[in-house]
Amino acid sequence: MLTIALSKGRIFEETLPLLAAAGIVPTEAPESSRKLIIGTNRDDVRLIIVRASDVPTYVQYGAADLGVAGRDVLIEHGGSGLYQPLDLQIARCRLMVAVQRGFDYEGAVKQGARLRIATKYTEQAREHFAAKGVHVDLIKLYGSMELAPLVGLADAIVDLVSTGSTLKANNLEAVEHIRDISSRLIVNQAALKLKEDRIQPLIDAFTSAVGQEA
Ligand code: PRT
Ligand code: MG
């Protein structure tokens, strides 16, 4: 059995065409079925549905042979035990620093002020501000980061931005770009050796499907 870990929502939706290119079609949609293990048209392939930030963990420990995870999630996880053969160019967005409209971020940085930063991405935020030589207090949040500056929890947030409409709706503006993010195919290193005959063709099919889209 080959087990592929995916998260619901954009990653599942954007991985579907790549799976189809490898001849794999799920028998159900995770949103409607509520099942966490989903069969496919192939008896030897199944999908498991986990939280986006848990995908690397399932693959690292071999509970899934493969998975699809955002670069944001992979950097926070650290990538240990994972082979990352392919950037799938899906679920693209940018990791940004954002503040409430009108907050003088550049001024605060120039004055050497200590900034309070709310984020789910503490590793990447720590690294970003350390490289700039800005002193920060990091406040770990698990979601709705956009709220933090509005209620005085933080001066700034580090969060993912795609269309920018969430920032706009909450009177925030992006002030710094940290990195571009897309999702990658990840493979358990031991599984790659043991099940190479089934995993390599899948990597090859994904690779040519990504090439065609680009
Ligand atoms: O939702 P859950 O807490 O389970 O986890 P998650 O939010 O990490 O999962 P999910 O499925 O929302 O995102 C999975 C992956 O998609 C992330 O790890 C990213 O690599 C990628 N991705 C791409 C995004 C976005 N675009 C994105 N826009 N992940 C989240 N967002 C959020 C962002 O955090 C912000 O709240 O969408 C909001 C901003 O969107 P815009 O379009 O208004 O700018
Ligand atoms: Mg989400």
From TrEMBL:
Record InterPro entries: ATP_PRibTrfase_cat, ATP_PRibTrfase_CS, ATP_PRibTrfase_HisG, ATP_PRibTrfase_HisG_short
EC number per UniProt: 2.4.2.17
Pathway(s): Amino-acid biosynthesis; L-histidine biosynthesis; L-histidine from 5-phospho-alpha-D-ribose 1-diphosphate: step 1/9
Catalysis performed (reactions): 1-(5-phospho-beta-D-ribosyl)-ATP + diphosphate = 5-phospho-alpha-D-ribose 1-diphosphate + ATP
PROSITE patterns (UniProt xref): ATP_P_PHORIBOSYLTR
Keywords from the UniProt entry: Amino-acid biosynthesis, ATP-binding, Cytoplasm, Glycosyltransferase, Histidine biosynthesis, Nucleotide-binding, Transferase
Gene3D superfamilies named in the record: Periplasmic binding protein-like II
Pfam family, one: HisG
Broad EC category: transferase
Swiss-Prot/TrEMBL domain comment: Lacks the C-terminal regulatory region which is replaced by HisZ.
UniProt function note: Catalyzes the condensation of ATP and 5-phosphoribose 1-diphosphate to form N'-(5'-phosphoribosyl)-ATP (PR-ATP). Has a crucial role in the pathway because the rate of histidine biosynthesis seems to be controlled primarily by regulation of HisG enzymatic activity.
Subunit structure as annotated in this protein's UniProt entry: Heteromultimer composed of HisG and HisZ subunits.
The family this protein is said to belong to: Belongs to the ATP phosphoribosyltransferase family. Short subfamily.
Protein name as it appears in the record: ATP phosphoribosyltransferase
Organism name: Chitiniphilus purpureus
Gene expressing this chain: hisG
